[in-house]
Amino acid sequence: MPDIIHLLPDFLANQIAAGEVVQRPASVVKELLENAVDARATGIQVIVKEAGKQLVQVVDNGIGMSETDARMCFERHATSKIRSTEDLFRIRTMGFRGEAMASIGAVAQVEMKTKPHGAEAGTRLVVEGSAIVLQEPVVTPAGTSIAVKNLFFNVPARRNFLKTNAVEMRHILDEFQRVALAYPEVSFTLHHNDTEVFNLPAGKLSQRIVSVFGSAYKEQMAYCEEDTTFLTVKGYIGKPEHAKKTRGEQFFFVNNRFVKSGYLNHAVMTAFEGLVPKENHPFYVLFIELEPEKIDINVHPTKTEIKFEDEKTVYAIVHAAVKKALGAYNIAPSLDFEGDVNFAPLQPIRVQGGYNEFDPGNSRPRSGESTAFPGFTPPVSARRATSKGWEQLYEPLRDQAGQENGTAAAASGAGLLDSAFAAPDVAAAYSNKAIQIHQKYLLVQVKSGLLIIDQQAAQERILYEKYSASLQKKTGASQALLFPQTLQLSPADAALMHELAGEFKDMGFLFEDFGGSTIILNGIPADVHAASEKELLEELIEQYKNNSATLKLDKRENLARAMARRIASRSLARMSDLEMNSLVDKLFACQVPNYAPDGRKTLVIMELGQLHELFQKG
After folding, report:
1. What b-and-e string marks burial along 195-221, b requiring 16 or more CB atoms within 10 Å of the CB?
2. How far is 44 from 188, CA to CA, in rounded Å?
3. pLDDT digits (tens, 9 = 90+) for 290-346
4. Beta carbons within 10 angstroms of residue 314's beta carbon
5. Are the beta carbons of 587 and 603 closer than 8 angstroms?
């Protein structure tokens, strides 16, 4: 039998390795930034064209490389960070595998210019597909400049898997922000297509956070610090009232390396328990410093996963540090042990009207005696009805299910209910009188019993189908704002707005660039109330990102769901009879009236038999 096992050529082995290390242009940005930081640079420039597909260039003023080191850095498993097995457990640098440059050189055209400090001339190296095609002396500033051009030029299948420029740019911004937050003492700049996106001077961590996320964060950060013999926790947490629907602005750094850890995130979330709604996520940027021997970062080529020697202790200290910070800034409720803890007794509330009309004996109370239940306040309608008889309270409910008013309009929608609600008596007309309960639910009388509608879920279904149709047909109408509003977005949100520009226009939003990450909002959908437009757009972006993180939806589906959720959540208010009946009609006219876009029920029917059982004795 002939031998069939053989060694792979270096260029093919590098391309295989690149599949793990270099997944998209953002991976190149991450690896080059980490190398620049390891080179002890104090100033780093990132230049990107066409979201990194055409060019990713990183220029630093670090220690530079000699001619030999410049050639060696493109070899597989060539590194200056480790020399023995023991070094794997003492790693304090960002890189150590020796795979990044070889992988990048295997799938791109790379030009490097580097010069050590004090040297008279530097070295220029050109690499294409793992092969060094040019090496020559060059006049260049001290430090290193690496330009990665035409990523995946020799692997067209990989290039075809890249997303749109807006999507790839958002991934680049994520990687850039992580390194910039980890090293606030280093100045960073980022240019995309000759436009400056970030200019971050060296400074304190708090200044870096504000520079990255915006001036609004000045008032919502609380300092967090806990120093123990085992580890140190430092950083900033956001105040509970500023928690958002998305978890994007949550950063853990272990020895200045960004890591993803659901375990540590749980430690923070439990500290915030009771202070933020369950679906909201607080902001935090936390740094954990501990001995390298107590962690293992050699888990995955991306180095974002980490293992702790004693994870329970790390969990407890992080939880305690966040809890302490919340208490120190009077964010978490605390008990005042010096104050009077004897609560005043509840005073009974008298029923206006002189005596209790609902008492079967109808006896008047003695002087100074109250017939009201403690803590019970009768509704206004009840107080007004006491002098005219309690029967008037139930006048709105006396309409019979067989009334003819509104029968035709309701019957056309009722037939669209699914089989669970498609009994003949349910398909008949509902009463033209709907009742709103707690500004959350609508009660509607039907032949079979009682129809209960979740007001917000119903509005979400109605709006979702409306916005989906607008996006599909590109017929969204706009209303121009009398005073256009200027919105200062984060670079990531601005990139998302540009990515969805066509969909926003189809829905009815009109906006234009105002330079950098600023946009001018000129119009909103015609059916949206012209109030707090800026907050609406920010909430819409947050909801869209939240959907993207939890669901696999296309852009139009995601945007329609996000818009429906945000508008519906703003519409919980007291409704007139006309508004309630209109909502019921529109719900029954939907293609899927029974469920909201996320699967929640919009309505339930309580049969007469069920109602009777509630009042049966025994």
Report:
1. eebbebeeeebbebbbbbbeeebeebb
2. 5
3. 988 888 766 555 567 778 888 899 999 999 999 999 887 755 554 444 444 444 444
4. 23
5. yes
